[in-house]
Amino acid sequence: MIPELGHFSLIIALFIAISLGVLPILGAARNNSVLMSMARPLAVGQFLFIVLAFAALAYSFLHDDFSVRYVAEHSNSQLPMHYRFAAIWGGHSGSLLLWVTILSVWTVAVATFSKHLPEEMVARVLGVMGLIAVGFLLFMLFTSDPFIRLLPAASDGQDLNPLLQDPGLVIHPPMLYMGYVGFSVAFSFAIAALLGGKLDATWARWSRPWTTVAWVFLTCGVMLGSWWAFYELGWGGWWFWDPVENASFMPWLVGTALIHSLAVTEKRGAFKSWTVLLAIAAFSLSLLGTFLVRSGVLTSVHSFAVDPKRGVFILAYLVVVIGSSLLLFAWRAPKIGLGGKFDIISRESMLLSNNVLLSVAAAAVFIGTLYPLFMDALGLGKLSVGPPYFDAVFVPLMALTILMMGFGALARWKQSSMSELIKRVRWGFVAAAILAILLPFIFKHWTPMIVLGLLMSFWIVASLVVSLEQRWSGDGPFIQRVRSQSLSYYGMHLAHLGVAVFIIGVTVVNGYQTERDVRMNVGDTVDSGGYVFRFDGVRSITGPNYSAEEAHLTVTRDGKLITALLPQKRTYNVSGMPMTKAAIDTDIFRDLYVSMGEPIPDSQGAWSMRVYYKPFVVWIWGGCLLMALGGVMAISDRRYRIHSRKAALIAEGKQPVSGGMATQGSPS
Amino acid sequence: MTRFWPFAAFAALVVFLYIGLGRDPHEIPSPLINKPAPTFTLPELYKPAQQFSSQDMKGQVWLLNVWASWCVSCREEHPVLMELSQKHIVPVYGLDYKDTNVQGEAWLREGGDPYTLVATDANGHVGIEFGVYGVPETYVIDKQGVIRYKQIGAITHENLQQKILPLVAELQAK
Amino acid sequence: MKYLLILLISLLPAISYAGEAKDMAKDPVLEQRMIHLTQNLRCLVCQNESLAASQADLAKDLRQEVRDKMKQGMTDKEIIAFMVSKYGDFVLFDPPMQRNTILLWYGPFGLLLIGLASLVYQLRKRRKSVLEVKMSAEEAQRTAALLNEPKAPQT
After folding, report:
1. Which of A22, A203, A452, A581 has its CA 20 to 30 A from that of C77?
2. A425-436 pLDDT, tens per residue?
3. Chain B window 18-47: which residues touch A at a Cβ cutoff of 8 Å?
4. A329 contacts in chain B (CB < 8 Å)
5. Which one-letter DSSP state was computed for residue B138?
6. What ipTM was reported for this prediction?
């Protein structure tokens, strides 16, 4: 009953989405207030029915309804409750339902927080989001229905893949989708503006908070995926330039370019067509990612099960959505004006150079990911493009971007001077360079790559210090001077600081990590990174749905006890699949990481073990969190919290202007 | 007309993606086609004391079929090989890859033995020389000992009729 | 005396086996070299894993093959050439620089030059064509209120 209800809900949601996609946009074109006003209620209706469908699937999972084929394929009665819930998005059709649920959440959010927007804008934005939902709902109902019954019902499920039975599955996909799908809002704003023929600075201001929030989610989502790979896969890697990872990284790069480009457009009303193109590109890359992961076109450790029929459907959907938006862009492009004036050396131009660099970086990842496909399609043979390529191409581009970042954060709007900028930062740069060159000597391992990494991060910090020094200088109490800067300004610096922290993490881990792959008898010790690991033996344990051999290792340093590590070698009951669970001790300055290999035959309990010392690895995830926090800080800026009623009245010219709430200090 | 560039680029991408849907990213063509087959000397399955040398095959067109008792797809192609061996068109030699003699013999007892001779590659070294990455795989080798075709995956009636047998006929005529 | 000897001998396992753990690899230096080389080679039967990391049977065999060839004295380049001769360019994660990969290796750099060049071109063009618009005092007030900035005549 419940699965059928869920299925029926999806059908109703489809009809609502069709109405949402057609009627308000028609209303906006014809200036029909009645049709336009249907947008918000339809958005709410779509949300309700999709959530109902999601709840139905959740119910089936939580109550072990193995008469639903998708539940039987991905769950099991022994599976702990929270994994039963997360298993909803453990496979293709369920993850699509998550996608469309999150889309409906964003749609209803836009419907709610848009009281200050003109009616035609709201109608068009919600309409476009409805059209996007139509495509996904059709896709689900025709090729990927999670509610298909299995008759006769299975007595028990096939269990969730052990690699997915982890807190990572509970949080990474929802965060990632919030980001991916969130870019649909920026996309819809861009399309709505193109449809209306009015593209100005206010469009940029409205888009900016939505885009930044989506970006924050995507940053967290990508970071969580990386962290999950690190502790789950058992050998300490955290990024493989795998096609599916690249599919989430490209929208992030373009999204970062977009939030910076929106700043220029908001400030000067300039480079609007470029910003619109970026908004279309960011979401298009999200959709392309969806295609790559589910069509079987590329091999990846993360791919869902392959079905070419699904691939054709998604491709057709891509053609319709992206093709029509790019045609709309080409058609409307002449109408988009040039905007305000700024110098060749100015904050605006530096932000745009950052745009070029980030876009080229995204293009490089794109080329590398799809090149094997291009070659194969042209019959030019089979190629692999792996980490060596991406590292060789991406690192120089990032170095240039970081260089610009240091200058850009200091440059003045509209007009700046290169010689003045250089004069301000030259001592900071020198200090950064000296530190970067000296530190590796102190830590007894010096390579050019380590120096480059340290130089990039110290340069960002130097630029940050120079900026703060200038902003905080002057008369009056210090606290006053600190509080007079806008949250937007601090957000920017926090996010950039996050980049510096991230780079330090990557540089130090790559430069100074150690790995030992050893044979350990009971009582043996191994040294890694100055820590001594002693193997104390293995015991058998049982978990909720697995049995395991658990090793006990005692870690000491200079004779002092640090911790005990308990890695496991699990065998899951239902699937019989083995899984290695690493044991990690995390500290702000290092991770100690042990994973079990194989028991060594005829050896009285000896095991092969992999022992890792990974210095500063949490700085990788910490840096990403700081970036996300910086984004949150930036949108908390008072400029975005204008009271909608007041703004609407001012916009209509009815409210006498009384000077408003003046913020102190200059906006950034 | 720069405003149409994004659309044009996207259209080109779609064409590639569409073609890509029809390709199999797992299939790896062999770089050994039209190159001399690696020479090897391996013990025979039924008479381990005796060695078989691929050099002995010069002057003949022959098929080298890589199989194993643990290989599931090999069961699918086995009847086809049995049929082929009875027609006496081309000799089929077997390479028992990463297997034990006991299990190999048992498998052939069960399903029949289509092979003129079976050589055993217990450690897989010869397989690597031939660029084997999965089983079953079959090589068509000509009279000069040059590899002319590699069948990746099971031999079926279809690929036998369409690709392998015509090629064999052509090579035998030379 | 005999019993003391037996006692001592039976204690030997406890004393002699606990110590510094030995590396799994028989020759750690060779192993490092092998891992370094195979990290850039693809496991052909996996879903996008390196030969160093994969647990597949073929990967284990190929790693052993690489070790053997290193012991025979082959250089890294020769070993890579061997792998390519058997499995094609597909086995390399580091795409070779050849005619069909020119676009791959030079593409990003070319795009960067094009991007920067068009940016500079656009910026120069805009200097000439963009006109400044002066707002009326009333418009300035309205904008200021909307943007929550202190009232100031905007240029």
Report:
1. A452
2. 999 999 999 999
3. 18-23, 25-29
4. 3, 6-7
5. E
6. 0.87
